[in-house]
Each structure stands twice: as C-alpha cells, then as structure tokens.
Write a structure and sequence with these properties.
The complex is a heterodimer of chains A (111) and B (245).
Chain A: H1 7-12, H2 19-26, H3 36-48, H4 54-66, H5 76-88, H6 94-108
Chain B: E1 4-5, E2 16-17, H1 27-41, H2 47-59, H3 63-74, H4 76-84, H5 86-92, E3 111-116, E4 121-126, H6 135-138, H7 148-156, H8 158-164, E5 174-179, E6 184-189, H9 201-207, H10 210-214
Parallel strand pairs in B: 3-6, 4-5
Antiparallel strand pairs in B: 1-2
C-alpha cells in the first residue's frame, strides 16, 4: 500500500470544510453529512463485487488515517482513504477523477 | 439560502421555517459523487447495486437487536434457540443474514453468535482487525467503534475502556472481549435488569439500546437512549432560523 501523497487529494482535503467544522457553523445537528450513507454503500458494493475487499480497504484506511490523513476527521478521512486506495490500485485514475470533479461541481452549481 | 414554506389556504398562518442546512458544496461532496460515477462507469459495481445498498444502510438500526434481546428475556425457549444458532433464531424476528439487502450479504459473513451475560460474566464486542459489526441487527456501527483507540485498547485494558463509557464493573465480574471478524459476528445478550419483572416485550425493547448490545452499557429502567455529548456551535451564523430572544 502506497502512502505517497496524491496531488488531487492534497488539494481536496481541507480541515475547515469537514462536516465537523461546517455543521455547528450552520447550526446543523445531523452528525453525518448527507453523502455518508452513499460512501458506506460504495464500500459495500466494492467489497461484494470483489473490486476492493473490505479487509484490504480497512487495512489501507488504518494506515492512511495514521499518516497522510491523520488531521482529517471521519467521515472525510474515510472518503479520502477510500479514493486514495482506489487510485493506488488503478481502479480510477487521478486525471479522470480531476476531470469528473470539475464536471460534478459545475453540475451542482447550476441553478 | 433561507426560505419558508406555506401550506393550506392562501393567507393562512401556516408558515414554518426550514431546518438549517449546510449551504455550500464542499470538495468532499463533489469527490464522493465523482468517484462513485467513475466506479459505475468502469463496471466496478452498478448504479442499481449502489441504490440497494444505500437504501439498506438507511433502513437498518438497532431495533432488530433490541427485539431479539426482549424476546430472549421473555421466552426461554427462544433464548435457548438464539444461543444455539444465532442465524436461525434471527429469522424468527425477521432478519435473514443470508439476504439482508435482498441482493446478497454486505460482507462475507454467515456466522453469528449471541453472547449471554450472567451476574458474574460480562461480554463486550470489538473488531480489532477492521470494523466488523452485526449490522443486520444493530444497524451501522458508531464512529467510536471503528476507531483504532477502541479497537486496540479494549483487548488490552477492557475495564479501563468500559469505565470511559461510564461502565464500572466490580472485580468479581469477569470481562470477556469477543473479537469479530469477516466470517463471524457477535452481539451481547445483557442480564435482564431488576425492576422489569412484569414488563411487556415492547417495554423491554425500549431499554435495550445499541450500546447495551455492544457491551459498553447496561440496560436499566428509565435508560432508553445512548446519550452522547452534543456539539455546540462555535461560531453560529445569524439566520432567520433562529428565534429572536
């Protein structure tokens, strides 16, 4: 398991934008962001279909949680660790991800 | 964005304020969507799989576990069956470990054991390796259950960790830590507390909280929720959601 930094995730990580920081700022009491369940389901899907076994994912997450992403709280840390592991294993590429993130943001900001 | 909704006849005084929400799109939200879309496009899983697992994750909670415990407390024959074959007994309360989501098991587990506490024996569950948890019965695991702090320290210093949850056990009570894994899950069947002798199953279910079935709390009359500290706003924003004082 590589613990080399991934440039895209370094620009994505932001302590001030975690749910733990934003929820109290906006007076929101839900302990988890709306995307948390989707993240959990994604982990289940990857495990069931064999692309990323649960044990491999957890081992990688443990390692990354104590190194690169130790300053980021859960569930953002889980997300970063999952994506980091997927990129490291070649399941998705950093370039594809960067491009898709731009598309997704543009879509979400369209009103 | 702040807004109000009006329902009923025009002019009727039925305005209510929308609950506050996080009113910005973070890169984390964008990242989760982006990686999911790519995973689906690459054939790592289907959108239909993801929808079903999301619905399942949203639907589960500790209610099924509470039901199992209350039934075991009131029905000795069921308790014997639950201790002998947990997976089979779960079907009696409507939980099928083979098909919890309707599309297959979320992980590769098909063994489940109910751990019976006695006045001199207390069980507590953990997953030292990762985060294995009896989700079909207890729902999603709490965040603290998945921390390396809990996972590493519980097996070494169980009494100290339990004390941090406010559970201080006398020395004559043996503490047994059961380590879950990908193939096998556990839950705790606590001792039925005094003062509940004539209670119905429904009344009993209410005091069997998630933490009691993990083993970091004990059921007792009047305790119906796992209370955890509430985060208070450090820099609350001024908005129309807040009443003027």
């Amino acid at each position: 398991m590589s613990v080399d930094r991934i440039a895209l995730l370094e620009t994505t990580r932001n302590q001030d934008k975690t749910w733990e920081a934003l929820a109290p700022h906006y007076g929101v009491t839900n302990p988890n962001p709306p995307w948390k369940t989707s993240l959990t389901a994604m982990c289940d899907c990857l495990a069931v279909n064999g692309a990323l076994p649960a044990l491999d994912r957890r081992k990688a997450e443990d390692e990354l949680a104590e190194t690169l992403y130790s300053d980021i709280p859960s569930p953002e840390r889980e997300l970063l660790a999952l994506v980091h592991t997927m990129v490291s294993r070649g399941l998705v590429t950093e370039a594809d991800l960067a491009s898709r993130m731009s598309m997704v943001r543009a879509r979400l900001e369209t009103v | 964005m702040s807004h109000t909704h009006s329902h009923g006849k025009p002019g009727a005084d039925t305005h209510h304020k929308a609950a506050p929400m996080v009113e910005e799109i973070t890169d984390y939200e964008v990242l989760e969507i982006a990686v999911r879309e790519l995973a689906i496009e690459h054939g790592l899983f289907t959108a239909e799989d993801h929808r079903r697992f999301t619905e399942w994750a949203e639907s589960i909670g500790p209610a099924a576990g509470s039901r199992l415990v209350a039934k075991a407390w009131t029905d000795p024959a069921f308790k014997a069956r639950a201790l002998k074959d947990g997976v089979k007994a779960c079907k009696e309360i409507g939980v099928d470990w083979a098909e919890p989501t309707g599309v297959g098991t979320p992980s590769d587990y098909m063994e489940f054991h109910v751990l019976e506490d006695t006045p001199t024996l207390h069980h507590v569950i953990v997953c030292t390796l990762c985060s294995c948890y009896p989700r079909p019965l207890l729902g999603m695991s709490p965040e603290w259950y998945r921390t390396t702090n809990y996972r590493r320290r519980l097996v070494r210093w169980p009494r100290q960790v339990l004390a941090e949850f406010g559970l201080i056990l006398p020395p004559e009570v043996e503490v047994r830590v059961e380590d879950s894994n990908q193939k096998c899950r556990f839950m705790v069947l606590p001792v039925r507390p005094k003062g509940t002798e004539n209670w119905t199953e429904e009344q009993l279910e209410a005091i069997v909280t998630r933490d009691c079935m993990i083993g970091v709390a004990l059921p007792k009359p009047g305790r119906t929720a796992d209370v955890h500290p509430i985060q208070k706003a450090r820099r609350p924003v001024e908005s129309s959601h807040q009443e003027a004082k």
